[in-house]
Amino acid sequence: MLAYLDSLCAALLARNTVEIRRLLAHPMAQDLPRRVREEAVAISRAGRRSFMAPVNALHLYYKLTHMVDESSDPTFEVPPAEQEKKTAQLNLPLRKVSSR
């Protein structure tokens, strides 16, 4: 869903009416809140000269990015070399601090 919403937001920001309509015809569009769908239709109808901003779509994208666990989303696959870097622990020597 996050990748779909990312594509929709990009199309809305670019005012790409063909891409917006294609994405709204996708079955995942039914899972979008009504405000987001209506906003996308309005932007696609207004055309390139419109100053409408996709506020509802961007807000939904923002909320979803904070709720989604990136490790479970195949869009955010981390290469094994990167996973090793995350799990590696850095051992630093401790020094004694004198008390005054």
Structure description:
This protein is mainly α. Helices cover 56% and strands 0% of the residues. Helix 2 (17-25) runs antiparallel to helix 3 (34-46). The chain is elongated and about 70 Å long.
Structural class: mainly alpha
Average pLDDT works out at 82
How large a portion of the residues is in β-strands, by DSSP E? under 5%
Largest sheet: none
Unreliable stretches covering 5 or more consecutive residues: none
Shape: elongated
Total number of β-strand segments?
0
Cα separation of the termini: 58 Å
List the helices and strands in order: HHHHH
Task: Summarize the entry for a quick read.
With 100 residues, the protein is an all-alpha fold. The protein is built from 5 helices and no strands. The model has no long low-confidence stretch (mean pLDDT 82).
